Amino acid sequence: xxxxxxxETSVGTLPKYIMLADKTETEMIQNGAISTTCPKCGxxxxxxxxxxxxTFEVPDGDYFRDNAIFAQRIKIRCECxxxxxxxxxx
Length: 90
Ligand SMILES: [Zn+2]
Hints:
The chain is of the alpha+beta class. The protein contains 3 helices and 3 strands. Strand 1 and strand 2 (54-57) form a beta hairpin. The radius of gyration is 15 Å and the shape is globular. It starts with a helix and ends in a 13-residue tail after the last strand. The chain binds zinc ion. Zinc ion binds next to loops.
């Protein structure tokens, strides 16, 4: 019972860096560009993709959309490291 309550409360309170990383990914898919900036370093986070054992920065939204399902890893991070997604396994 205690555990259940704890789990429910934690749902709406994702850490800010995760929410910003999610937003970055959504923007890239929907707009093909990122407008989110980091509240700490003021720079836009970047998205990296690991595809066929090579890791590189995602060039644009179309590329991201077309290749995200084949990616082994997707990583989102800003320069100072405040925004980061950890690793998303698709
Ligand atoms: Zn930053």
